[in-house]
Each structure stands twice: as C-alpha cells, then as structure tokens.
Model the fold of this input.
Amino acid sequence: MCISTFNNAKRTYRYLIKVSIVLVLYLLSARLGDFLNFIDVFNHGQYPPYWPPSGVAFALILLLGGKVWPGIAIASLILIPESYWFLENDPQISDVIIVSSGFTVGRVLEPLAGYYFFRKVSSGTNPFENPKSSLNFVITTLIISVIGAGMSSTAIQIASPIATEIYLVRMGAWYIDNVVGILVFSPFILAVYYYATDSGFEKRERCKFLWMLWLPLLLAVTSLIYSMHPKLTSTYIVVINCLPFLVIPFLFWLAFKYHMAISSFAVIITSVIAIYLTT
Done:
C-alpha cells in the first residue's frame, strides 16, 4: 500500500513538473512574440511576425505527450488579459468569457490535433527521421494552424463584431503567425532535445552552440550600417540592402554541415534580429 501510494505521488510530481515546464516556456515564448509585435497600418489589430508559443506548444506536446495540455491552457488564460483586444476595449463579462474560451480552446486544440494527426501519419514523433516525416510535419502545421487562428479570431468577432473583410484579414494574419511560429520554433526545440539525448555526440560538439552566434551577428552589423546612412546614393542603397541576404548561404552551410539544433538556433536568432531592426 505504501509503495503504491509512493509511486502515485511520484508520477503526480513528474506530471506537475512537465506541466510547469510547458507553462513557463509558453509564457516566455509569448513575451518574445509580444516584443516583436507591430500594429498594421490599416488598424486591423496587433500582430507579431510569428507566434512562438504555437511552435513551443506543438514541440512540447510531441515530446511530453498530450496530457500536458493544462500548461498551455493556464498560460493562455494568463496572457489573454494582456492582449491587444482587452487593452483597446472595455469588454463586458460575457465578452471576456467568450474571448477567453475561444483563445484557450483554440490554443490547446491546435497542438493536440497536431500531436494525434502527426502520430497517425508518421511512425513516431520525430519529424526529422526521413523526408516523408518532414513533409508530414509541414502538412500537419498547415492544417492545425487553422484551429488556433480560426477560433481566436471568431471569438473576438462574436464578442465585438467588425467588418467581414477585417475579420478575414485578422484570421489570415494569425494563421500565418501560427504557421511560421511552428515551422521556426518547433524544429529548434525538437532538434535540441534529440541533440542532447544523442549519445553519439561528444561534449565538444555540443559546445558549438556558443561560437555559432557570429552568424546572426553578421546580419545585425549589416542592418546597423544601413540604419546609420539615411542619405545614400541609389547604387549604395541597393548594395547595402542586399548585404543582409548574405546570411542565407551561411544558414544553408550550417544546415548541411552541423546538427539541425545549431542551424535552427541560428535561424531563430537571425529572424529575431531582422524583425526587431525592421519594425
């Protein structure tokens, strides 16, 4: 009896740790998304170029299983009062319930649907096992992103109706946010996990994360040079505008030469720097 109780307590403790990890990582990634937010020129709302929590949630669900969904739900409920819609409106209690429910259910169902769909069409949870798994991962992303974007935008539409055109623009923007967020952040988290648990890599290989930071630095320096020269000749402007694209061959080089954990990390850092310096 005592052993059974101890085992149950141990499983509960491990489960709560997993849920807490999901909660913390989701909130931290949401801060990154808010940091990169911008308001569109047509005043259709506030959108990040991508929504990192979508990628974080999907990756963690794939790794830890669908039972950790409460971490996503709690994080979503924490974030909703800080959203653009709540700050720009004075919602009634009924509207708060509708929007909160729509956002939370959508954000939970999105990675859960991806988890079960991807496991159904693939042999495991690793999308990098073979080209077919990678293609299934992309297809899964394109499908499940409709859930989060659709439920969130529809909930706001029910609470505070707007023109159909703006509603569709909002849904489309959030759909792209979710797709890009998953395609950028899920591979990084999954690759880091498989990288760290692969006994074939030596400690020296794992330390390559540190000195790979010079790559996104190239883009940062290039963008800084451009921002310091507002009055340039047309030819020089063209040259300066082309320099950031020099980072692309290096990203390809990283992808082919090193583990995906390193190349995906460089993609995230490069994208954050590029978005921050251009918005």
